[in-house]
Amino acid sequence: MQIKKITLYAVLAALTSAVSLLVIIPIPGTNGIITLCDAGIAITGLLLGPTAGLFVGAISGGFIDLLAGYPQWILFSLLIHGVQGFVFGYFFQQKKFLKSLGLVLGVIIMVVGYALTTGLLYGLGAAIASIPSNLFQSTFGALIAIPITTMLKKATGKRLKFDH
Fold it and tell me: Which sequence spans correspond to the domains of the chain?
């Protein structure tokens, strides 16, 4: 990977983490949190493709948990948000119908991944209780990524792609 790519991905992971840490809503019943992480991951994946989405999703997801005081979630967040970012980026490079499908799949990956993890860590009741807040967080992030990505593409006047 080129130094420019690594640097850009690191900056985007740090930015996603910083923005996410500004707004943290604790969910006591599931020992989890709601953040803006999904928005940063989706924006990165949509703008820069699957590799960037994977990197920023994994690094920011784990880093947020570390800094917010939820270390038991770090490994799971690395995996879940990394795959989510990859899916956002991969499908957004496809035909129009698949772009929307990619956003939906990214949301599903996050919600199901965290429900399974919550069930593993805290039981079935907590897993079921985690679904509404994770569905809200991920859907909100994916939805606001669309206009932000559109504005960023217009502002730059060029395509921001490294994965091709």
Answer: 3-156
Name the CATH architecture for the domain at 3-156. Answer: Orthogonal Bundle (1.10)
Task: Scan for tokens 């989890």, then name that residue.
Answer: 32
Q: What is the mean pLDDT of residues 100-109?
A: 93
3-state per-residue secondary structure call for the chain: CCHHHHHHHHHHHHHHHHHHHHCCEEECCCCEEECCHHHHHHHHHHHHCHHHHHHHHHHHHHHHHHHHCCHHHHHHHHHHHHHHHHHHHHHHCCCHHHHHHHHHHHHHHHHHHHHHHHHHHHCHHHHHHHHHHHHHHHHHHHHHHHHHHHHHHHHHCCCCCCCC
pLDDT tens readout for residues 121-164: 999 999 999 999 999 999 999 999 999 998 988 888 755 554 44
Indicate whether this model's pTM tops 0.85.
yes
